[in-house]
Amino acid sequence: MILPSVIDAIGATPLVALDRLTARLGLAGRILAKLDHLNPGHSKKDRAARAILRAARADGTLAPGQTVVELTSGNMGTGLAICCAVLGHPFVAVMSAGNSPERAAMMRALGAEVVLVPQADGAPGRVTGADLAAVEAAAAAITAARGAFRADQFRHPGNPAAHETGTAAELWSQSGGSITAFCDFAGSGGTLAGVARALSPRGVRCYAVEPEGAAVLAGRPATQTDHPIQGGGYAMAALAHLAGAPLAGHLAVTGADARDYARLLARTEGIFGGYSAGANLAAAVRLLEGPERGGTVAVVVCDSGLKYLSTDLWEDRP
User: Fold this and answer.
1) How far is CA 24 from each of CA 17, 18, 19, 284, rounded to the nearest angstrom?
2) Which of 160, 170, 190, 271 is deepest in the core (most CB within 10 A)?
3) Domains of the chain, start order
């Protein structure tokens, strides 16, 4: 089949059983990994980027040729850069300087203008809520100055809708309805909200994953917001997409756990995911060791390990 454009290749990613990994760890149950790092922009955010732009073009809030602006850790920006290139919109990505430089380089290669915002209080590779607030202020100013359309991944309903009708439906169909639980690292909350809306009525228990020390969605105080899991865990007490979402619980993982499980995923299953994939896997293992023992837990490989080559994710440690 010949597709009309690369954005028509977004979605329908493989679902892979991590049976080698679960056997190695002696776990009772299965973990199924949705390989969204194989999307054209190497992340799950391609789905939301396409959905938001299509909805905005359909309802007239995005005019032909109008500039699109969005804050990003790099993944949504890459998805938007791809979609904007195909649909004919200039795109401005506004990103914290603390995110890995591979992301900015990829967006520029795809034709995006990339505005890097100096960090407020984080360190390179560790973006905090204060850093995100600075990026939000810059994105809002650029949107107003240029009369642009703001993609607004934290609020636009196209984000969770993409995962409710796409990711969740694929998970259920590909697994033959065998999934009993799902967990996802909370960035904008779009993936978790969309999957929870679709699969909770089918009896699937859905869990939010946050960094240890920044698990504010679970009602805990933020004590350590400086963590290496890029793309989320900003210690935002409320995420609009998760308001009213049917969640079964919350899990917190450390940056070290996310790093170790990303490496284990690569070396055991040959799946090259990033920090958030490691966080999701760490949480899935904990679920199979506890409340979901004997079940089938689905996770998303949110983005590619290629986006972290300049970070400590793949550095050898003694």
Assistant:
1) 13, 10, 8, 15
2) 190
3) 6-43+157-314 (3.40.50.1100), 45-150 (3.40.50.1100)
